[in-house]
Write a structure and sequence with these properties.
5-stranded antiparallel sheet; 45% helix; elongated; alpha+beta; single chain
C-alpha cells in the first residue's frame, strides 16, 4: 500500500506528530474534559519568529447554556457581568470551565489555537480544529449564527473578548501618545487629534475621557480606557496615532 515504509514510520513518530500543533486535536477525557489544538500563548512567544498574539476567553457560565447549568451554584449570575475583559484577565487566573481562542494581533486576526476546559470539550474542539487548520479569523467566528442553546456560543464569547482586548491595548497606546505630548486641557487634545485628521465627534469623546474635572486632570490609563470603551472603538478616530 505504501511505497516507503520508513517514510511513513518517520512521519507518524511522536516527534513528527507534535511538530505541528495544528495537525490534529487532542482530547483528554477527564471530568471535566480538556481539549486543545494549535499553539498556546507561551508557545507562540517561543516560535521563530515569535507570534504576537491575543487571547480571548469565553466562560461557560457566561453562555446561555452555562447560565442554565450554573443556577443554584456559586457561579450563578456570572453571565450578567459580561465579557471578562483585559483588566479581569490580568488580575485573576482563569480557574473555571472556559474556552480560549489564541489569535494573531495583526489583522485579520487569524486564529492559531483553541483550548477548552469543561463539558463537551472533546466535542467542541473539532470545530476549533477547523478554525485553526483553515486559518479562520475572529471575524469569521462572529459571522456564524450558533444554534441555541449550545456551548458553541463560547467561540463567539471568546472572539468578542479577544477583540475587546485588542481595543484596550490600542487605547492604552493612544493614552501614552497623548500623555507624552504634554497637552494642557481638552482644547489642546482636540486640536492635536484634529491636526492629525481625526473625526470631530471622536476627538471630543477622547478629550472628555482624558481630561477629568474643571481643571482637566489627566485621567489614569485604566479610567481613560474604561470611559472610552463605553462610547467608541479606536478605529472611530479615523486616523492611526502611533505611540512615540
Amino acid at each position: 500500500m505504501f511505497s516507503d515504509g520508513k517514510t511513513v514510520q518517520k512521519s507518524a513518530s511522536p516527534a513528527a506528530l507534535l511538530a505541528d500543533a495544528a495537525r490534529y486535536p487532542i482530547g483528554i477525557w477527564t471530568i471535566p474534559e480538556i481539549a486543545f489544538v494549535g499553539v498556546t500563548a507561551s508557545h507562540a512567544a517561543q516560535m521563530d519568529p515569535p507570534l504576537d498574539i491575543v487571547e480571548g476567553r469565553g466562560k461557560y457560565s457566561q453562555s446561555i447554556r452555562g447560565h442554565v447549568h450554573t443556577a443554584g451554584t456559586s457561579a450563578e449570575g456570572e453571565y450578567l457581568a459580561g465579557r471578562s475583559g483585559a483588566a479581569a484577565q490580568a488580575s485573576q487566573a482563569l480557574t473555571g470551565p472556559a474556552l480560549k481562542l489564541v489569535a494573531r494581533t495583526d489583522a485579520p486576526h487569524e486564529i492559531v489555537g483553541v483550548h477548552i476546559f469543561g463539558t463537551d470539550a472533546c466535542e467542541l474542539v473539532h470545530y476549533g480544529t477547523t478554525l485553526v487548520q483553515e486559518r479562520k479569523t475572529l471575524a469569521d467566528v462572529l459571522a456564524v449564527c450558533y444554534a441555541a442553546v449550545t456551548y458553541h456560543e463560547l467561540f463567539k464569547l471568546a472572539a468578542l473578548d479577544a477583540l475587546d482586548e485588542l481595543q484596550r491595548r490600542r487605547w492604552c497606546e493612544i493614552h501614552a501618545q497623548l500623555k507624552s505630548a504634554n497637552l494642557a486641557g481638552r482644547v489642546e487634545v482636540i486640536k492635536y487629534l484634529r491636526d492629525r485628521g481625526a473625526h470631530t465627534e471622536a476627538t471630543y469623546n477622547v478629550a472628555r475621557a482624558l481630561c477629568l474635572g474643571k481643571d482637566d486632570t489627566l485621567a489614569p490609563v485604566d479610567t481613560f480606557v474604561k470611559r472610552l470603551r463605553r462610547t467608541q472603538g479606536p478605529v472611530e478616530l479615523g486616523v492611526d496615532i502611533d505611540a512615540e
